[in-house]
Amino acid sequence: QVQLVESGGGLVQPGGSLRLSCTASGGTFSRYAMGWFRQAPGKEREFTAAISRNGGSTNYADSVKGRFTISRDNAKNTMYLQMSSLKPEDTANYYCAAKTSLLSGAIYFYGYDDWGQGTQVTVSS
């Protein structure tokens, strides 16, 4: 089991940028495939982006493709989500998640084992 803490959320104007971080502790970070999910008020949590253990494979929801970039630094036990060209519909609580993976290049859309508490992103003028 790994403990995850998100940071970097806040209030940003439409068209602006934010970088979220997810720092892991209590486990060997490089053994986990990672993902970002988000949940807007009144909606179900949805997949946003995923990255493999080695960082070599990534995938994005269509709604954020071309605007968001997921990355990780295994030496720092940290994953990032760089968000650009933000829209009001990106407003949500953003969660990071970890899944033990035997395959270094695998990414996952569901089945995550450990979750952070979330960080709020609000896009508004």
Walk me through this protein's architecture.
This protein is mostly beta strands and 125 residues long. Helices cover 0% and strands 49% of the residues. The chain contains no helices and eleven strands. Strands 2, 4, 5, 6, 9, 10 and 11 form a seven-stranded mixed β-sheet that branches. A four-stranded antiparallel β-sheet has the order 1-3-8-7, with no helix packed on it. The radius of gyration is 13 Å and the shape is globular. The chain starts with a strand and ends with a strand. The mean pLDDT is 96.
Defining traits:
single chain; 49% strand; 0% helix; four-stranded antiparallel sheet; 11 strands; mainly beta; globular; 125 residues; seven-stranded mixed sheet
Question: Which helices and strands occur, and which strands form pairs?
Answer:
Blueprint: E1 3-7, E2 10-12, E3 18-25, E4 32-39, E5 46-51, E6 58-60, E7 68-73, E8 78-83, E9 92-100, E10 114-115, E11 119-123
Parallel strand pairs: 2-11
Antiparallel strand pairs: 1-3, 3-8, 4-5, 4-9, 5-6, 7-8, 9-10, 9-11
Overall geometry comes to globular
- Estimate the strand proportion: over 45%
Task: State the separation between the terminal residues, measured CA to CA.
Answer: 39 Å
Helix/strand class: mainly beta
**Major sheet:** 7 strands, mixed
Extract low-pLDDT stretches.
none
Portion of residues within helices: under 10%
Order of helices and strands: EEEEEEEEEEE
How large is the radius of gyration? 13 Å
Number of helical runs? 0
Number of strands: 11
Q: Quick check: average pLDDT?
A: 96
